[in-house]
Amino acid sequence: MKPETLLFSKTHEWVHVETDSTGAKVATIGISAFALEALTDLVYIELPKVGRTLKTGEAFGEIESVKAVSDLYSPVDGAVVATHDSLANELESLPSDPYGNGWLVKIKLSDETALQELMDYAAYQKQCAEEGH
Amino acid sequence: MRNIRALQPLFDLAKPGRRATRFPKSDVPEVPLTKLLPATAIAEQPPALPELAEPDVVRHFTNLSTLNMSVDTHFYPLGSCTMKHNPKRNERLASLPGMLDLHPYQPEETLQGMLALLYELQQMLGEIGGLPAVSLQPAAGAQGEFTSLLIASAYFRERGENRTKVLAPDSAHGTNPASAAVAGFTAVTVKSTPQGFVDLADLAAKLDHETAVFMITNPNTLGMFEPNIKRIAEMVHAVGGLLYLDGANMNAILGITRPGDFGADMMHFNCHKTFSGPHGSGGPGAGPIAVTSVLAPYLPAPLVVREDAGYRLDYDRPKSVGRVRSFFGNVGILVRAYCYIRSHGPDGLRRVSENAVLNANYLLARVKHIFPVPQGDRCMHEFVASAAKLKTDKDISAMDIAKRLLDYGFHAPTVYFPPIVREAMMIEPTETESKETLDAFAETLFRITEEPAELLHEAPHTTSISRPDEVRAARQPVMISPPPGSP
């Protein structure tokens, strides 16, 4: 996916919303290329179990690099319907395709209001420029 | 010069039957192991240990030690770790047989000297922290945090309050949220302002009647004294919570201010840092805690108490959280802390902090035009400089600088912590360094920034190991050298 088509949270998660065959809205969540660059070499990721319900801003997992451990925060409200478990064994490939094969979890939305708080790519890039001065 | 043979793994140096010591025949009746331990506790075979003569062992470890840096060999500005000089007098005193060859289960009347020392240390730490009740049990700062959170649990349990959250700023040491999680709380992060202080609005939003403790490091990990500390203490107390002071940075405020006076209810000391115990390889440590008199009943048992008949260990503490350590930290480090505090006295301790702050500010002033310090022109005992501009302009990272410093005979500063500063270099010179050493370090930093990036990316060039594969070390660690013949 192109980052221009995605929404972004202040905490550097990206969101892509699709409607599934039952008409429910499902958000795919990942981490931005900017955040991955700041983390440097990754060593560990912990993802939630399928079925867990998450509130916006709640930590759903963590990612560890040689530099730091960071929490992953849910940018939406809903229930986890899929997790990208094979990532744990191929973390080194995550930075090469953060907006595609780098997805982390899929969350079935219980409420869509949180989406309005998210930024488009241009606004997110502006935030990154401010953080990265 | 380097003895390569002695550096081989000990298993490779071993020969069956070789010994350092041959024990004399036992002069007391031998009891079979099976009578002392249940069968389930006895291994089928003795452990595979290398068999070596004493010179092999001495040469191995002595040569290994020369591959590393220490405060006795190099300037060691490792921020947050307070790598100050370890006075040799304290080593000698801690090694006296009367200190070294004691056992805590000796009759108390034969331990009076050590108990007096530990009792006085409890009193002195209570005075320095402004928190009157002290336990010397925790063996390190992180265990002090954990023990204090157990005390908070016991306190709230007795009051019938169910509080589940422990708050800590995003600049906190990683041990704070880790201690909270291990003690059964949910760790919640409070944001910092761009200046690096606690964001009061975010703190207010996260404080509620589920908040048990707010853990704060003051001065914080950016080397800044929190100007709103009184307000923060009031906010935490207003919701019924407790304020914990991570004492890692006590070296900046000895005799100047006291955590108990600015509102802390509990704190730990890192005796191996602030009070000059040696701490190579992360230990041994001692992390005594001090708490308010309200929390005193929950301190771990035993405490050292003084009575007319002398000193004794007091186990009769019904509300105690129990034992967190066999006895008291690592007693040798506590003895050194006692000697250090007694040799300096109250005025001397204040001068320690004043000189630690002066040294850090001097170094900050010397390097800030090359390594900007986002938090400003003044600091306490340490400061966090950023190599972000060098990274952008010349592709030189904080890690490259840290690695190259080793070639010049300086230990690296702490890098990439706290995570809220990009390309962070956390520099803590301590009070025991001379102006000449600080100048030489600053000049070396400048010189490194003039070197070609390619040279720095490959640094260090003079150490026995250059850059280990950190990712592989984290993901596929080999924890021990396997003995010969193991699968």
Task: Explain what the structure shows.
The complex is a heterodimer of chains A (133) and B (487). Chain A has 133 residues and is mainly β. Chain A has one domain: Beta Barrel (OB fold (Dihydrolipoamide Acetyltransferase, E2P)), CATH 2.40.50. Chain A contains 2 helices and 9 strands; from the N terminus they run E-E-E-H-E-E-E-E-E-E-H. In chain A, the strands form 2 sheets. In chain A, strands 1-2-3-9-8-5 form a 6-stranded antiparallel β-sheet. A 3-stranded antiparallel β-sheet of chain A has the order 4-6-7, with no helix packed on it. The longest helix of chain A is centred in the last third of the chain and has 11 residues. The mean pLDDT of chain A is 92. Helices cover 36% and strands 10% of the residues of chain B. Chain B has a 7-stranded mixed β-sheet with strand order 1-7-6-5-4-2-3, sandwiched between helices. In chain B, strands 10-12-11 form a 3-stranded antiparallel β-sheet, covered by helices on one side. Chain B contains 17 helices and 12 strands. Chain B folds into 3 domains: 67 residues, no CATH class; 251 residues, Aspartate Aminotransferase, domain 2, CATH 3.40.640; 128 residues, Aspartate Aminotransferase, domain 1. The mean pLDDT of chain B is 94. Chain B has 487 residues and is α/β, with parallel strands linked by helices. Chain B is globular and about 70 Å long. The chains are: A mainly beta (133), B alpha/beta (487).
